[in-house]
Amino acid sequence: MKEYSEAIAFLGQWGRFQQMVFFLLCASIMPNGSGTFNLVFVADIPPHHCFVPDVNLTEDWLKAAIPVQELSRCSRYRLDVVRNLSAQGYVPGRDVNLTDLEQESCVDGWSYSTDIYQSTIVSEFDLVCSEEWKQPFTITVFNVGVILGSFFAGQLSDRFGRKPVLFATMAVQTVFGFIQAFSTSWIMFLIFLLIGGLGQMSNYLAALLLGAEILTSNVRVLYSSLGTNFAFAFGYMMLALFAYFLRDWKSLLLGLSLPTLVYIPLWWLIPESPRWLLSQGRVDEAEAIVRKAAKWNKVQAPQLIFEEYNVSLCFCIFLFKYLYNVCPCLPRLVNTIGYIALSYNTSQLHEDPFISCFLSALVELPAYVSMWLALRYLPRQACVIGCLLLAAASLYLVPLMPQSLPNLKVVLELLGKYAFTSGTVLMFVYSSELYPTVLRNTASGTVLNIDMFLSFVLKYFTVFPFLGVFMKYLPHITLGSMAVVSAIAAVVLPESFGRPLPDTIQQMPTVKPKEYHILPVMLTQGCESVFKQTET
């Protein structure tokens, strides 16, 4: 039986059909870049202080009613006391020692600065002071939706096809991103945000694997490493542009959601994956798509394109080969942690949040270009180790830089973001090369779920928010150390460079060294014998 790439070699690699699939799938990914990080602006915390109602206070007392210290965001001097002192003609700071006055909470609400934003969900629903925990929890809820969506979309994609899941997740993104803007409470916003998160990375993963299965050879590498990620980065940069002009959180959500309606006609242009159809035994449908592609490319299709495919699924084979291929999880996990942590930490790069977001997105472009070149010419294992060591070196150097060179620290953090972005791209492509067509989406989605869950747990509870309290640069040292450990673990990664995508479980590459595989090989042979006996 011919390999899939051999069977469709007559189409060529870069005809009109491949060009259409390439660019339309890339276009479908652009909303992921803006949707993944829009909470950077939607849930940002603007400067605020207790609201002081107009109760006939003098101008001096109106200014002095809010304590100067950091606690002023959540407290004020007792209004009845301040009003009596103002009525008696006392001058704050001269006649009255303000530190002796009793304070109270912001019983009349808060006043939020509009210098940067007209409003965010923080100012809309007062997610400050005693309710401040709701702001990071909002981001966590979104990430839970992303994890659940990746898991279930992977299962559904392997069961019902790549194309239906791709467009279903696009619809979820669009619809629930739109109705979030009409939330009247924080709980309502959370519900819509959770459902919208189901379509985020699952849409990206579906588009990535659909293109990787349709395209072949160097074009597949170009699509997986450069095309999809350039589209993601473009959407990420557009987020900064939209947020700059739409300073109200509702307007921003509407502005990001409504343009995605132009993707509706793509349903009639993007085909199902012929690889997936073959794995389901639907040979006639796969041939119909390839023959249509031949017409687009103006080439003659042979009379018989595919032989009959008989893809059997032995779960025990997959289980043990999957367990013995678990080594890619650690490098992928650390790359994901580093990418997410540095992406959400963009406010530290520049005092202007819009410039910070743009710089964080811009540095991804050279990462995608370099990974495209690396994936074409270099072994996967060497690329993984190189990205991790580069990230570790840049993060280790940040604490050593003198305070007089703040721009050099920014450059090093951006270099770390570059390295983690490169590693994340590499691991996405690498995972798609490891797993067979019958389980590619399920396996990739499962690994992504593990990475996303652990990375968000580590990000929120061990990396930037808390470690920085004990020592300013402890997060950088921690991430750098994790990268070094992952680079060491990457030594035993299986190599997929120069190999065709596996269509069956038996074709999966395995972890080195070979001595580790006695048990999986025995079980594989046992399962195969069971299938042979069943067939006879």
Please provide a written account of the structure.
This protein has 24 helices and four strands. By secondary structure, the protein is mainly α. It has three domains: 1-43 and 121-315, Growth Hormone, Chain: A (Up-down Bundle); 48-112, no CATH class; 321-498, MFS general substrate transporter like domains (Growth Hormone, Chain: A, Up-down Bundle), CATH 1.20.1250. Helix 10 runs antiparallel to helix 21 and helix 11 packs across helix 20. The protein is elongated and about 100 Å long. The chain starts with a helix and ends with a helix. The model is unreliable at 310-325 and 513-536 (pLDDT under 50).
**What would you give as the CATH superfamily of the largest domain?**
MFS general substrate transporter like domains
User: What is the CATH topology classification name of the largest domain?
Assistant: Growth Hormone, Chain: A
Global mean pLDDT: 78
Beta-strand percentage range: under 5%
Largest sheet: 2 strands, antiparallel
How many individual domains? 3
The unreliable regions are 310-325, 513-536
- Structural class, judged by helices and strands? mainly alpha
One letter per element, helices H and strands E, the order comes to HHHEHEHEEHHHHHHHHHHHHHHHHHHH
Radius of gyration: 27 Å
User: What count of helical segments does DSSP give?
Assistant: 24
Query: Any guess at the CATH architecture of the largest domain?
Result: Up-down Bundle
Overall morphology: elongated
